[in-house]
Amino acid sequence: MLPIAVGGNTVVGASGSVHSLPVYHLDHVDDIDRMGVYIVYRDAAVAIEQHTFEPIYVGRAETETIAQRFAKGHAHQECFTKHSAKFIGVISQRDDQKLEDIEVDLIKGLNPVCNEQHAQ
Q1: Residue 47 to residue 52: CA distance in whole angstroms
Q2: 27, 46, 54, 94: which sits with the fewest CB atoms below 10 Å from its CB?
Q3: Residue 9: partners with Cβ closer than 8 Å, 6 or more residues away
Q4: Is 82 helix (H, G, I), strand (E, B) or coil?
Q5: Of 23, 5, 19, 30, which Cα lies nearest the Cα of 107?
Q6: Residue 12 belongs to what H/E stretch?
Q7: Burial, 41: exposed, middle or buried (Cβ in 10 Å; 0-12, 13-18, 19+)?
């Protein structure tokens, strides 16, 4: 069962592919029992009443659910904390090749700060 979405977001990959996805509070990641591509966001809002989702990481869960991936302690948790991660968006998908294609396209298009291309 999925938690209640706090909003939605539309992202565009490097290929021009557009994805609309529901966004959940990161505190409820335990309830995301799906496989797919996920985007971790920080809230870049100026006003308290409105969320502005800024992508900081794109990943995929292909052999386990997103909840299971985070339950083990995410490899990028330190970066998530450093950049005040608060939300997670999910593109549900079970096809491994499509998962990889979407993930790579979004990383190239969004250039999120916590992905490997930013490792020092």
Answers
A1: 9
A2: 46
A3: 20, 21, 23, 39, 41, 53, 89
A4: helix
A5: 19
A6: strand 7-12
A7: buried
The mean pLDDT of 65-83, rounded to a whole number, is 92
Measure the CA angle with vertex 84, ends 60 and 86; round to 5°. Answer: 60
CA distances from 50 to 7, 28, 43, 53 (A): 10, 19, 9, 10
Return the closest-CA partner of residue 9 out of 47, 60, 44: 44
* CA 110/CA 117 separation, integer angstroms: 12
Sole residue written with tokens 């909003």: 7
Report the distance separating Cα 115 and Cα 57, nearest Å: 6
Residue 98: pLDDT band by 50, 70, 90 thresholds? very high
Radius of gyration over alpha carbons of the chain, in Å?
13
Instruction: Report pTM.
Output: 0.90
Which residue type is seen at 24?
Y
Checking if the pLDDT of 75 tops 80, the result is: yes
**Tokens 């990161």 sit at which residue?**
26
